[in-house]
Amino acid sequence: MGRGFIASDDLANKRESNYTHAPVFPDGLWMNFTNFTTLFPGRCLRWALHRSVRTVYLGCTLWVLAVTIYLSVRQTTSFRITSVMWQNRQQGFDAQSSSASPFTGAFARFPRVSELPARHKRMTIVTVWNDDAFPSYLRHFFYTIQLNAEHLDLLVINRLGKNGTRCLDFEKAGVNITWGGNIKVHCMTDEGWQNRHVDFLCSTESGWNCDPVEREEVMKEFQDEQYQTWYNWRPVRGFIFRDLFQNPSNPLWGWMDHDVFVGNFAHYPFNILSQVSMASGSMVDPYTAFFAGQLTAFNMDDTALRTAWKKFPALKSAAHFTKYLEGKMPDSSEERYWSYGYFRSDEDLPGADLSWCLYPGMNGDDYYDEKWNRKNSNLTYLISGREVLLASTSYTRKEIEDLIKLERQTPIDDIGGIGWTGGEDGSAYLVAQPSLSSSEAKRLAMSKDGPLSSPRVHEGIVEDLLLSINCTGRPRWKQCVDPHPLTESHPPIMRSSLIHFKEQEKNHVIRRLERDQRQRGYERKLLRHHLKSKNLPWFELPSFDITEDLVLRYNSDMVEVFKMGISREENLFYRKEGEESIG
């Protein structure tokens, strides 16, 4: 059955991965431009003496002098870089140095995806599903997860209730989860669920180091109905279930909604996640800082993540949890109170020890803009095989087919996936002047008196912003920055990303604004919500899967499926609200 199988509590697969640690930046990657120029005087001297042409040596010397003066001027007047002007590795970030952690931002740029070790190019998605209900959208979720077997593992915790409920029956549903080899379903009793969580909370390494009496009190409190909801404790779920991962030594994990079509995760910015504690995204411009329920990912290589949760006032100790010494944890999802704690760097909150990134263009769900359910939409979502695209409803089926083929043939971005668009320059977040050490570049980038006062850095804009808790645009969330007007134009002129590193000032973020250089015909997305789960009862699909030769086109008005090629104008399936299914 490959790696896709159903496990029980007694049959947990605990295979260790063969992946090994590797430095983020391989030897020979960097070139020191100063060392490059020092090669010339000696070589010119030998050549001049050999030819007895003194004037040539004088010319070479004058050339070197001119280049030196040019570089000195360039250092102080320009921030644009090229691929040969990076720091010497001895001056920059050493991935194996104990004094330079990637989570502090002590490097001049994000690594390319191709430079990452294998363990940083694969993510385990951990989801929780109660009992044996099998809505139609699960079929498409499992299918598109398996299309991403190169980059994703899926661990489904199939949690059973207390009234003799059953585990998911894939054979009965007619859904094959074994062909991709990357899905594991672990059926878990309610007692097993509770024990795993309390074991983590009371552990010596991660939790409160409870004695037997404290553990009993913690278990009693944990059994409160408030703590039994599916979303509580989600930010620590990777640690709780890591022994069930197909590759437990892989540090990257995330959560994802079940009611989505999954896009091509070859475009996920693994290189960015490899350098921060956690990463999330948004539909467009990320100016609100919260855990997106559709997809949020964590990097367990940052050991601070294991214990950061204990900084919540109500979770400081077992006594705080059970006796409410500083109040009780609010009955709130991770998108609200947990997000508030993890994205703010106040000393009494988890975010004080963490770094994070929010990137644009993650999902195709504009639910949070309260527009997704509008009728007569002028946008449509296209899904075919691994691709999820957002395009205009005006495209013909031939034009849609051309878009999908273009996307499949476009080379995978090696410098940040969907999150950055500025090419080689866009992979950097610091000043990165050629002669500066990375620590000095970092200091200048975060300085109020440094180059942030100049608007142009790497053909983009870098700003130092204070994370506000007065979100006027989206008051339901706890922290935000004001959106930049250039990111809200139609189409947007700039794209925005937010980054926070551990050594920044409290609650400060770096906002990168880069010119949007994507082709205007469509937008690529990592995932898209399945409308059947969004209270549109008329939306339905036949039982077939959306493969590379089948195109699903839908919005809030209609849904249709057609086959690419000469028969593309024939409807395999079509339905509109109030109409009978066709096909």
Structural commentary:
The structure is a single chain. Helix 5 (190-201) crosses helix 6 (212-222). The chain is 23% helix and 17% strand. The chain has 583 residues and is of the alpha+beta class. Strands 1-4-3-2-5-8-7-9-13-14-12 form an 11-stranded mixed sheet. A 6-stranded antiparallel sheet has the order 15-11-10-17-18-19, with helices on one face. The radius of gyration is 26 Å and the shape is globular. It has helices spanning 33-51, 54-77, 137-147, 170-173, 190-201, 212-222, 237-240, 270-273, 304-307, 318-323, 334-343, 397-409, 423-426, 438-445, and strands spanning 5-7, 123-130, 152-159, 183-188, 252-256, 260-262, 278-281, 295-299, 356-359, 379-384, 387-392, 460-466, 494-500, 508-515, 522-524, 527-529, 550-554, 558-563, 573-576. It contains 14 helices and 19 strands. The model is unreliable at 1-54, 67-100, 366-373, 418-436 and 450-459 (pLDDT under 50).
Overview in brief:
With 583 residues, the protein is an alpha+beta fold. The protein contains 14 helices and 19 strands.
